[in-house]
Amino acid sequence: xxxxxxxxxxxxxxxxxxxxxxxxxxxxxxxxxxxWAWSFLQPVSRLIILSFIFTRAIPLDIPNYPAFLFVGLVxxxxxxxxxxxxxxxxxxxxxxxxxxxxxxxxxPTVAVFSAALDAFVALIILxxxxxxxxxxxxxxxxxxxxxxxxxMMIIGIGALLCVANVYSRDVRLxxxxxxxxxxxxxxxxxxxxxxxxxxxxxxxxNPMTWMIGLQRAVLIxxxxxxxxxxVTLVVVCVGLFVAGIVVxxxxxxxxxxxx
Amino acid sequence: MRSEHRAAExxxxxxxxxxxxxxxxxxxxxxxxxxxxxxSRERFTAVDDVSxxxxxxxxxxxxxxxxxxxxxxxxxxxxxxxxxxxVVLRSAGVNGLLSLGEGMQGELSGRDNAYTVAxxxxxxxxxxxxxxxxxxxxxxxxxVMDQPLRTYxxxxxxxxxxxASVAVEPEILVIDELLAVGDIRFRQRCIDYMKELAGSGAxxxxxxxxxxxxxxxxDRAIWLRNGHTMSVxxxxxxxxxYANAMRDAVGPASVEDDGSMRxxxxxxxxxxxxxxxxxxxxxxxLRAGEPVAxxxxxxxxxxxxxxxxxxxxxxxxxxxxxLIDDADERGVPITxxxxxxxxxxxLDLGSGEYxxxxxxxxxxxxxxxxxxxxxxxFAVTGPGQPGKLTPPHRWSRENA
Lengths: 259, 400
Known about the structure:
The structure holds 2 protein chains of 2 kinds.
Chain A lengths: L10 H19 L8 H20 L7 H23 L6 H4 L8 H27 L10 H25 L2 H16 L11 H7 L3 H15 L5 H25 L3 H4 L1
Helix pairs in contact in A: 1-5, 2-3, 2-5, 3-5, 3-6, 3-7, 3-9, 5-6, 6-7, 6-10, 9-10
Chain B lengths: L1 H7 L1 E13 L5 H6 L9 E13 L3 E5 L6 H9 L6 E6 L3 E4 L12 H11 L4 H14 L15 H13 L5 E5 L7 H16 L3 E6 L2 H7 L2 E6 L2 E7 H16 L3 E2 L5 E3 L4 E9 L8 E3 L4 E10 L3 E9 L5 E7 L6 E2 L5 E6 L7 E10 L6 E14 L19
Helix pairs in contact in B: 4-5, 4-6, 5-6
């Protein structure tokens, strides 16, 4: 005799996640002419327009600006896409919640992985771009670790928000607004040091500020980032991850009662 | 054969299940003003101390009106939600169909969707692919399987969802009221298949508010009312208790002073029944094709909701028109003094005398609250053809 919802994912859950992620892509592009090419038109067109604005219209005097901007864009886009999709993952798929035996964690996982696939496409374009412009520094070996950290951060925040969104639908609207504002309050297209000091102190609470800073250091500058930054970021990302997983497991059983 | 199975093995055991829910959300902004309400909302009890056992190889029914707690019990059994107190034990994973279209995508073909449902039901990609032929055959969708799901009717979606859900050959299968959507022939196919599954050792739990449906397929059943167990055991016993209770609630029919017949539980009382013109003037006769309205008042009631019905019949008892307000079977709110009216744009009946029957029924059609048979009569006057209908028509000559 056993309970229908096990704590750990089993092989079926992995099949299910894989299938649902693939499905998400097929559905998204099923009736479009150029299909999945849309997923890199997005970052590339943003890159072009923003580099034009901040090198010609309002020059920010950042050396190698397109590369600087591209790293920020790809990283932010992943964060924002992942958090937004996972926030809505339970409410948006409420039909799946009444599927007996389906592990609830499958839904935010699918959301996070779908966003990651978009980010992966963008990352490849980014690396090609860097290789042809600024060149890629040897520090790129650290990149996978940063990707894992950002993954943990998105999963943690997403797990917290998807449950919160079940209890109050205002959460999703608030998250979407915060992400729009967050694009400007995170040094995506400008330098952190450009901000007035009091604003810097606020923006410093945003983990994405540090994440993007580190990714730039690794991909463009080739310098070794300060250990304090690394430690802080690791603590924050792992902390968010653990908090998200714990809260999700504590609360997810009552999700269907509240939806 | 059933009793041998029964002695064998308990597959699902519900032990003193109780489930309470928080009352529905207060609306929007108030939620923030009274933020404490979010945590201290009143709770209502959907399921109260329900226990039963289900044995391998049997079809177990849960019967009761809407809101009786049967769907909540099914969800508890399926492990979708946890009991507030009590325990559910099951010897295997649960599969089933609790809502139509879970995980289905309108843009994708029926085949792709069937594959998804099969994967969700726990098949590996290879097993799921191998089952697609069987699903197409069982659902009788054939080549339609390649059309996008958005072109399907509800009945076709149900056929697909049912076929894909049972393709996994489940050990425990739960089905919630869904067979109501399919056509009669497919419903029969599902019932036969469920019996076949049970015969080969699967255990099936199914809810319904229709006693007849459960009598057809179940070995044993539980009857729930307001979350309480009213009866549990063999389907014959449960259905006997259920039918008795319905009769007791309604009582025998009585004859009114004006000669009309009346029956019902007395939880509501119908008065002032009139046949009127659209402007509300009571009439005794009208010309064929004219508009007409039927009005009645709820004098007194001890229940909050009722399904409303007005029907017209001939002297020999043939019903010619049935006007029922049962969009969701939950009925409409009623209060003492509530006046209801249903308007017919044009009554294209042949000339003759018609009787008006008016009824108030408990939500879910469990029993009549008050039903007045031949409460009124009126005459339709017209050219006097013997037919029962006089729809608008026109003669013309087709050749020169």
